[in-house]
């Protein structure tokens, strides 16, 4: 499997984040100019075409303190409205700049008219938005959930038809330290046009994993005993089997200097530590990057795949059969140099791995 470089850093800008659209039509990157005053750009690449990505200025204003915090994230969300009995699809680029969440319609981004940006500002200047996830809900709205450095959780809605915001809930001290990542726990192969409200998995620097489902926040067990003094930096989940009212779920958790820890949450709600997948048995250098993450996807009737980046230019892939409790496949992909950090892994449609190398380029690989 050869490496494919999709978007590379260009002069006078810093590549800070990227995302893949539902349905894997577009790859979008977020870039910040290195010349002050700073400007924000997105580059949009159609994945089924060989053409050079198109660059658009967003018009988001950034302060120097915002740039220093480097808390940028990007997501492209598909939303639906019903007009005269017919469903219409809309796409929004959602940008986290640390101090605010910004929404820009993809349709207006492509048009010649003046671009309209909608901004939800976080109310605490000494706090920073560290992670978020957005999804479509009933009633022509997008719901956004985000966590902060002070351990606060905020949920708000953006109404597509009225172009207005509404705060739903705020949980202060939801975690004892900063939230690091926020990932949805989804069934593999979910229809990108489906309205599905996922369980959200938050990793926190208090070394706990948190679950937000149906408005209830839970601190998940077993993580602390697995740490051994190391730091939890990311978590992700997948619904392996869905029953009528219950489900079987697996969670992959990245712990620095330990590896990807796999946990099972059975249909009866019981938790079990399954296995540790080690990136490099002979690693000599201490892992330090909080950007390296694990992902997990369901495959077949009894298997899950665990994928992780690294701080030495590699992507690691394991296929695990949970019925037989065996690793059926292990693959190491060299996608960069030995000194490069491969991070921000995303899985699209259960088939393609997207990743970023340092702040230099975004690449992709087909899953084995």
Descriptive report:
The chain is mainly β and 368 residues long. It has helices at 64-69, 106-110, 223-227; strands at 4-8, 13-20, 26-33, 40-46, 54-57, 73-83, 86-96, 100-105, 117-121, 129-137, 141-148, 153-159, 164-171, 179-187, 199-204, 208-213, 216-220, 232-242, 247-255, 259-265, 271-277, 294-299, 303-308, 314-321, 326-334, 342-348, 352-357, 361-366. The protein has a domain at 230-368: YVTN repeat-like/Quinoprotein amine dehydrogenase (Methylamine Dehydrogenase, Chain H, 7 Propeller), CATH 2.130.10.
Give a topology summary.
Elements: E1 4-8, E2 13-20, E3 26-33, E4 40-46, E5 54-57, H1 64-69, E6 73-83, E7 86-96, E8 100-105, H2 106-110, E9 117-121, E10 129-137, E11 141-148, E12 153-159, E13 164-171, E14 179-187, E15 199-204, E16 208-213, E17 216-220, H3 223-227, E18 232-242, E19 247-255, E20 259-265, E21 271-277, E22 294-299, E23 303-308, E24 314-321, E25 326-334, E26 342-348, E27 352-357, E28 361-366
Parallel strand pairs: 14-18
Antiparallel strand pairs: 1-28, 2-3, 3-4, 4-5, 6-7, 7-8, 8-9, 10-11, 11-12, 12-13, 14-15, 15-16, 16-17, 18-19, 19-20, 20-21, 22-23, 23-24, 24-25, 26-27, 27-28
